[in-house]
TrEMBL record:
<dbReference type="GO" id="GO:0050660">
    <property type="term" value="F:flavin adenine dinucleotide binding"/>
</dbReference>
<feature type="domain" description="Glucose-methanol-choline oxidoreductase N-terminal">
    <location>
        <begin position="288"/>
        <end position="302"/>
    </location>
</feature>
<feature type="binding site">
    <location>
        <begin position="522"/>
        <end position="523"/>
    </location>
    <ligand>
        <name>FAD</name>
    </ligand>
</feature>
<comment type="similarity">
    <text>Belongs to the GMC oxidoreductase family.</text>
</comment>
<feature type="binding site">
    <location>
        <begin position="84"/>
        <end position="85"/>
    </location>
    <ligand>
        <name>FAD</name>
    </ligand>
</feature>
<feature type="binding site">
    <location>
        <position position="551"/>
    </location>
    <ligand>
        <name>FAD</name>
    </ligand>
</feature>
<feature type="binding site">
    <location>
        <begin position="562"/>
        <end position="563"/>
    </location>
    <ligand>
        <name>FAD</name>
    </ligand>
</feature>
<dbReference type="InterPro" id="IPR012132">
    <property type="entry name" value="GMC_OxRdtase"/>
</dbReference>
<feature type="signal peptide">
    <location>
        <begin position="1"/>
        <end position="27"/>
    </location>
</feature>
<keyword id="KW-0732">Signal</keyword>
<dbReference type="InterPro" id="IPR051871">
    <property type="entry name" value="GMC_Oxidoreductase-Related"/>
</dbReference>
<dbReference type="InterPro" id="IPR000172">
    <property type="entry name" value="GMC_OxRdtase_N"/>
</dbReference>
<feature type="binding site">
    <location>
        <position position="130"/>
    </location>
    <ligand>
        <name>FAD</name>
    </ligand>
</feature>
<dbReference type="Pfam" id="PF05199">
    <property type="entry name" value="GMC_oxred_C"/>
</dbReference>
<keyword id="KW-0285">Flavoprotein</keyword>
<dbReference type="Pfam" id="PF00732">
    <property type="entry name" value="GMC_oxred_N"/>
</dbReference>
<dbReference type="InterPro" id="IPR036188">
    <property type="entry name" value="FAD/NAD-bd_sf"/>
</dbReference>
Length: 588
């Protein structure tokens, strides 16, 4: 009888927990509805009568780092439909909390906020699949582009600064440096990366502390939080709305004209939605450097041979769509510690005149939740699938790989990474379709280190990393003896996870170390460059009523970390469009 009573009590407690969980989830959903009444599930669009018979002034494809501030800005004066293939970030703990950063990236489920892909180079990467885009899955560091970059792209400096400030007032915070980050900052100065520029958003040579979109409680603030700055009466945001292709009017003798899009809702049903008949209405692609060129190709804009290969009706031949893709190669060394290390993402940076940026993260080591994490940047997990030739990557081999990670002692991974990123890589790659399914990743090649100058800068960067790791500040903090270069590199070869076969001379040749341990910090860009795919005002060449506002138009990644400039770009271009269309009546 006592056992029966215990079982009943256990079941009662389980029921209470489930009810509490249900109540908590319902509470969060109600909060989202009250704060963001314009956000709807895609399937409710026609059922609940949200569609506009007159069409929309702007249809924005991609509710990401640029798309959200762009939608908020344009909705001040015009009707806007923002289509996002992912869900909302507000109720997802893997998105919202700094401590779950690595778990969010490791989640490979179909509904994850992060969609993994591997480039043909063998580097594992990620794309966002959530409202807020990259700002919902990145390391949170916020720093502006250099003045050189702003001048190069031809933007109005005054409006740029106003647009940065608009973002900063709403979602950017000053970080409280962890002990690891203080030690890292002191070490940067110790090895000569000076002067110390303190806390600043500006891109300045030397060592600085930048902003972050994580607040003091470790909660992330994405660009989705910029949406309430718009006019809710003019703004409709559909989540789980996956755009399949653009719709063009291709009447004979006229330039192709974008008139709408086809999107799929979360139930699999497809819908068409159209622009208004106003001449200046536009479809705007803000889907990022992977999805935007992919969308153009699937919609019939791209190299003729590529379109014919997949039986896609050609709207416009443009050989440059998907070309000039680049990703900033990242290499890192793992720094062990004999004392507990607090979790921290990027808070400070060393900006060198040699075209190398130095950053650091800490405390994201082996844990029960990170067992399946294959991102070498922060997982710090030894044993890697990349040591197994592709033909031998059997299900059994993969299970052995997972088991080897599970069996690793937690103590082996106290510490952090020091990272070096090559700025403005000369090596360029390309993107192409592997099928006509928008849900699948296209084939992407970045050609890391194909240009010798990129490799030369990586070697210089790795030398700097080892000096930083051996500085008295780090050895005092970690309570570890100075490591030999060979030992540091040996640990780091195993800790950087990619699918590139390793060589026996990884710890003897810094060039080989760079090639074999290259990973990413998710700063890929290009594919739709200015003067090749778009004009200087980012309108797609050869068609009308179609524009691109995202990092696919960049020939280089702005600043040490691009998110600040992509956020600003959404606000800036929104203001420019309003001013071009309304003049003084824009009220901006």
């Amino acid at each position: 009888m006592a056992l029966v009573g215990t079982v009943k009590l256990f079941l009662f407690l389980v029921l209470l927990c489930l009810l509490h969980l249900l109540s908590s989830c319902q509470g969060r959903e109600n909060w989202v509805k009250s704060q963001y009444p314009f956000i709807k599930r895609a399937s409710s669009f026609y059922r609940d009568g949200h569609e506009r018979e007159k069409g929309y002034d702007y249809i924005i494809v991609g509710g990401g780092t640029a798309g959200c501030p762009l939608a908020a800005t344009l909705s001040q004066n015009f009707s806007v439909l923002l289509l996002e293939r992912g869900g909302v970030p507000f109720t997802n703990a893997n998105v919202s909390l700094l401590r779950n950063f690595h778990i969010g990236l490791a989640d490979t489920s179909p509904t994850s906020a992060s969609q993994a892909f591997a480039s043909t180079d063998g580097v594992i990467n990620a794309r966002a699949r959530v409202l807020g885009g990259g700002s919902a899955i990145n390391a949170g560091f916020y720093t502006r582009a250099s003045s050189r970059f702003i001048k190069k792209v031809g933007w109005d400096e005054k409006l740029v600064n106003e647009s940065y400030s608009w973002v900063e007032k709403r979602i950017v915070h000053r970080p409280k440096l962890t002990d690891w980050q203080k030690t890292f900052t002191d070490s940067l100065l110790d090895v000569g990366i000076s002067p110390f520029n303190g806390f600043t958003y500006d891109h300045l040579y030397g060592t600085k502390v930048g902003g972050t979109i994580f607040d003091r409680f470790g909660r992330r603030h994405t660009t989705a939080e910029l949406l309430p700055s718009g006019n809710p009466d003019n703004l409709t945001v559909l989540v789980h709305a996956t755009v399949q292709r653009l719709i063009f009017d291709t009447a004979h003798g006229k330039k192709p004209k974008a008139i709408g899009v086809v999107f799929k809702d979360e139930t699999g049903n497809q819908h068409k939605v159209f622009l208004s008949s106003r001449r200046q209405s536009e479809v705007i692609l803000s889907s990022g450097a992977i999805a935007t060129p992919q969308m153009l190709l699937l919609s019939g804009i791209g190299p003729r041979d590529d379109l014919e290969k997949w039986n896609i009706s050609m709207v416009l031949h443009n050989e440059f769509v998907g070309k000039d893709m680049a990703d900033n190669p990242l290499n890192s060394i793992f720094v062990p510690s004999n004392r507990p290390v607090q979790q921290s993402l990027i808070q400070a940076v060393g900006i060198t005149k040699r075209g190398v940026y130095i950053e650091s993260s800490s405390g994201f080591g082996q844990s029960g939740e990170s067992i399946h994490c294959h991102h070498g940047l922060l997982s710090a997990e030894i044993g890697q699938l990349s040591t197994i030739p592709p033909k031998q990557r059997t299900p059994e081999a993969i299970q052995n790989y997972i088991k080897s990670k599970r069996d690793l002692p937690h103590e082996a991974f106290k510490g952090g990474f020091i990272l070096e990123k090559v700025a403005n890589p000369f090596s360029k790659g390309h993107l192409s379709l592997i099928n006509t399914n928008i849900d699948d990743n296209p084939a992407v090649t970045f050609n890391y280190f194909h240009h010798p100058y990129d490799l030369h800068r990586c070697v210089e960067g790795v030398r700097m990393l080892t000096k930083i790791a051996d500085s008295e500040y780090f050895t005092n903090f970690t309570q570890c003896d100075k490591e030999t270069l060979d030992k540091l590199l040996n640990i780091s070869v195993k800790a950087n996870i990619n699918l590139i076969p390793k060589h026996t001379n990884d710890t003897k040749s810094l060039e080989q170390f760079c090639k074999d341990t290259v990973i990413t910090i998710w700063h890929y860009h290009g594919g739709c460059l200015v003067d090749k795919v778009v004009s200087h005002d980012l309108k797609v060449l050869g068609v009308t009523r179609l524009r691109i506002i995202d990092g696919s138009t960049f020939s280089e990644s702005p600043g040490t970390n691009p998110q600040a400039t992509v956020m600003m770009m959404g606000r800036y271009m929104g203001l420019k469009i309003l001013m071009d269309r309304l003049g003084k009546r824009a009220g901006t």
